Amino acid sequence: MAQDIRRVAHCSHWGAFDLLVAGGRIVGVEPMAFDPAPSDIIGSVPEWADPRLRIAQPMVRAGWLRNRERSDGAGRGREPFVPVGWDEALDLVAGQVLRVRDRFGPASIFAGSYGWTSAGRFHHAATGLKRLLGLVGGYTGHVNTYSIAAGPVILRHIFGSEDACNGGASTLDTVAEHAEQVIVFGALSPRTAQTEAGGIARHTLEGHLKRLAERGARIVLVSPARDDLPDWVLAEWLPIRPNTDTALMLALAQEIVAGGRNDLEFLARCCSGSEAFLAYLSGESDGVPKDADWAAPITGIAADQIRRLASSLPARRTMLTVSWALQRADHGEQPFWAATGLAAVIGQIGLPGGGVGFGYGSLGGVGAPQARSQAPAMSAGVNPTGSFIPVARITDLLSRPGEAFDYNGRSYTYPDTRMVYWAGGNPFHHHQDLNRLRRAWQRPEAVVVQEPFWTATARLADIVLPATTSIERNDLSGNRRSDHIIAMKKAIEPVGGARDDFAIFADLAQRLGVADAFTEGRDEMGWIRHLYEASREDAAARFAHAMPAFEEFWVQGWAALPVRPDFTYLAEFRQDPAAHRLATDSGLIVLHSPRIAGMAHADCPPHPSWVEPAEWLGDAGGAGRFHLVSRQPVDKLHSQLDYSSRSQALKQDGREIASIHPDDATRLGIAAGDTIRLWNARGACLAGVRVTDGVRPGVVILPTGAWYTPADDRDGALDLAGNPNVLTLDKGTSALGQGCSAHTCMVSIERVMAPPPLVAAPPAIARDAA
Ligand SMILES: Nc1nc2c(c(=O)[nH]1)N[C@H]1C(S)=C(S)[C@@H](COP(=O)(O)OP(=O)(O)OC[C@H]3O[C@@H](n4cnc5c(=O)[nH]c(N)nc54)[C@H](O)[C@@H]3O)O[C@H]1N2
Ligand SMILES: Nc1nc2c(c(=O)[nH]1)N[C@H]1C(S)=C(S)[C@@H](COP(=O)(O)OP(=O)(O)OC[C@H]3O[C@@H](n4cnc5c(=O)[nH]c(N)nc54)[C@H](O)[C@@H]3O)O[C@H]1N2
Ligand SMILES: [Mo]
User: Which Gene3D superfamilies does this entry report, sorted A to Z (predicted)?
Assistant: First the structure.
């Protein structure tokens, strides 16, 4: 009966919606009216409540419960779990925090705990964990993200700020209105733009692409996959070999320079180091001109095509867009720097619709008018140890205590990790070379995982603390790339014995003697109100923007933030570089960096450079093998909701589907619907097959997100579900950025005649243990 249905405002990383609740259950999901292009993934949210997937109560690994920190870490994932009560579980966790801190020092607790967790900014798991441990001596944390690491680190050297890859470059409304030509390196895809960390109110990418199409702008897609633009965008497709964009960008720049069409005035007035960059392009410095003939065999794009594209660039108002994906690859600093070098040679940086921007479409908020006021966020406080790793160096941290590593020009030492506490992330989804991680994961003495679901990471823990999902508690969303704050109201009661992230941390704080400092005396609604009020006061004080009072916001379900539309990055700088100095060493855009030269890293030269990736189609081992592109899944967020019916509907026999070119399929005797094995020296997985000429020959696309499901518990076991991270390379992008190199990976492929069945592990484990 309609009158029994309650509407509950809520938000996820993929959009804002009303949950329709009746009889304590969610019976429907409706997008908020202001979203022009809602994501289908909102329809999967009710499946969070499926008790078969949830961790019913706190669990402790049997061997660990017996022998505590002296137990054998090899038992992780092998031994059964023993259900325990919350008090016992939290006593054990607090005891380990104190033991490791007092015996080995706080830096021996790893709480970097990377992951997207829920969109809620109050119950934000990783922030709560850091806030708690910061109050009792500290921990080892992380810098940068899996999404972007090489990119922001190099951009700080180039522009003095990482804004241009965080959504602070020109807004897409101005690009859509002024660009005559857009060169897309990577993607501009609603697939990835569905999501935004901390929530998204309005999905606007499609609207901007439609406006470009309507204005007749020319669009060129440089990507191994044709579907990196929607099929209704008429684009020219240059199916480039993965990881070779830097060579293409350098050649485009060199052809423009050789034709005498480079903007000398812009280079001289707004850039430093252009002499060294141009000398490298021409070959003056190393004897190799980086022209179209040089780039053709590297990139797989014909020299004529490169020359034609080059000649069109300075002729029109041209925007270069570079997806984040390009820097999640070996030497991922270079495509961002080379794109900047190319844009500088074209000379349109700072003009409406011209220049370069990074990460458009990678998340839905990149290129949207940025919120100018303070987004709601819990404070993580300070970490007294200052100890950190570049986020993707987790396996090195666990396996190489005491060894040195470089990051952005300085040398650091990996601490000796005795305890790992992960809350709100799934490293056995997200990290590269999972077999290597699994070996290293045996080393710490205690592993705590705080998670709603039986993920692979939860199954590899010693102590599992079941957290509620956002629909079981109150919270609020927010992000500086979103133009709204959305109320995230509790829709249903907690599933099983799960507890809210904040409540778990508050109880641990009590045991550790820091309850007052942790909670500041506020409860859930007290905090939500407090975080909202801070944003409201800031919007009023700095932008004279009126937001509704808290009560009104909570009833309405949303509040709009002040935003900055029609923004052109570096417009003021371009007009007067002296008055608007960049925070770089030269105050200008840096095309050759004496500072990076001083670091003397062979894998990160001091100007944009082509450096061969560790593995690629052009190297000796490339023949007959495939470059694996493990891109983001269309139907879920990473590993979240992998079990949902929407996600399962896009699988084949429960496995993720790989896409290959018809020529490759014929060569290997593979047809659509077959099961294939992908393998290399690091690991192997099974996958279904799609055959499409929308993928470049020699490339295989296998989306991320499948729950890691090893066939047995031996080292290097075959993954049955199609998780590409059993194959990917675990290597820093360079000694400078140390980002993840997920998109640098070569694999072999063969057809599997009698594929083993996929066993649905997580609920089974929950049943065994109960
Ligand atoms: N090969 C390859 N690997 C990649 C990438 C790639 O392109 N290729 N991309 C990388 C990128 S960019 C990223 S960002 C990472 C993503 O990696 P992650 O962020 O680790 O992936 P998620 O699946 O979002 O993991 C979030 C976890 O939080 C849990 N969770 C959800 N809500 C809550 C909550 O309220 N409380 C708690 N405690 N937990 C909650 C979810 O169940 C889930 O297990 O993957 C990276 N890995
Ligand atoms: N639906 C959904 N959306 C998501 C996510 C999700 O899990 N699901 N995850 C979100 C997160 S955390 C992030 S960080 C972003 C990531 O956003 P992106 O990094 O932009 O996303 P990817 O899917 O990794 O890559 C985009 C495209 O780049 C192309 N590509 C890969 N390597 C190369 C290369 O060497 N050269 C060129 N020219 N192209 C290449 C691939 O064809 C791929 O489709 O996505 C976000 N959006
Ligand atoms: Mo990401």
Answer: 2.40.40.20, 3.40.50.740, Dimethylsulfoxide Reductase, domain 2 (3.40.228.10), Dimethylsulfoxide Reductase, domain 3 (3.90.55.10)
Whether ligand 1 lies within 6 angstroms of the CB of 647 is answered as no
Residues in the chain, pLDDT under 50: 1, 763-770
**Token pair 């850039």: residue:** 271
Measured by CA distance, the residue closest to atom 47 of ligand 1 is 430
15: its two tokens:
């959009």
Quick: pLDDT tens for 507-531: 999 999 999 999 999 999 999 999 9
Ligand number with the minimum distance to the CA of 192 = 2
- Residue-range domains of the chain with CATH: 150-371+567-599 (3.40.228.10), 620-752 (2.40.40.20)
Query: From the CB of 426, is ligand 1 less than 6 Å away?
Result: yes
Contact 125 CB / ligand 1 (< 6 Å)? yes
pLDDT, tens digit, 9 for 90 and up, residues 71-129? 999 999 999 999 999 999 999 999 999 999 999 999 999 999 999 999 999 999 999 99
* Distance between Cα 429 and ligand 1 center (Å): 7
Q: 362 C-alpha vs ligand 2 centroid, how far in Å?
A: 6
Sheet with 475-476, strands from edge to edge, namely: 475-476, 484-488, 558-560
Catalytic residues: 114, 116
Q: Is 690 exposed, middle or buried (0-12, 13-18, 19+ CB in 10 A)?
A: middle
How far is ligand 1, taken at its centre, from the CA of residue 706, in Å? 11
Partners of residue 606 on adjacent β-strands: none
